[in-house]
Amino acid sequence: MTPKSSNYETMKQAMAQTFSSYDTGAMIEKFHLQHDAAYLYLPLLGRAYRIDRRSGQVSWSDDGFRTSTEADYNVAMTLYDVLCCSEPDCHLAHTWVNVRSLARVQGGTLEKSGDFFQGAGRMFSGKADALARRCQALQGKKLDQGDAAYQLDLLPFLPLQLVFWEADEDFPASLQFFVDRNTLAYMHYETLMFALSHVLDRLQAQA
């Protein structure tokens, strides 16, 4: 579900160059980021990422950055948007809302994302137990809802919840995402869809 075309790669590289023009010191203070002279460090879904303060390149590692891999488009654009474009006083409302009903989303955007949510449900149809195990592998906190439900830390300061219902005689399988009511103060709606696509990619990748 990660875009791979050259156009997306071009957009990612353009945003990396734009990132380098921002005040990384302000980002560190705003989000309490770990950092050194060369990098900002920020985990996403429990995986370690770093952003080069000069080039803007985003990379991830599972071995303390002894080795690293360039981040894909969805992750890079999520981090760029949060760090560069979030509202100055962004904060959690501590009220959960369905992603599809965010008050600030315009109708046309939601219409385009309908297939995304339908596909997410089909992806795990008949696999509630497997979904639960994969959420646990991402350090998810179990919730008492649906057939499988977990809270995940998209970012250390920005959680999300997913709730899965298996299909029955009346309805197809459904995977719904819930986020804090103020999530769009941290990122644009389009970016949130990138982030949710990455969540699904990670869930699919868990053995």
Which strand order does the major sheet show?
1-2-3-4-5
Q: Give the integer mean of the pLDDT values.
A: 91
Query: How many E strands?
Result: 10
The CATH architecture of the largest domain can be given as: 2-Layer Sandwich
Distance between the termini: 17 Å
The total domain count is 2
Please trace the helix and strand order, writing H or E for each element. Answer: HHEEEEEHEHHEEEEH
Q: Globular, elongated, flat, extended or rod-shaped: what is the shape?
A: globular
Number of contiguous helices: 6
- The amount of helix comes to 25-40%
Low-confidence stretches: none
- Which class best fits the helix and strand makeup? alpha+beta
Largest sheet: 5 strands, antiparallel
The portion of residues forming beta strands comes to: 15-25%
CATH topology of the largest domain: TATA-Binding Protein
Radius of gyration: 17 Å
User: What's the CATH first level of the largest domain?
Assistant: Alpha Beta
InterPro entries: DUF3786
Organism: Candidatus Avoscillospira avicola
Domain DUF3786: 25-199
Protein name: DUF3786 domain-containing protein
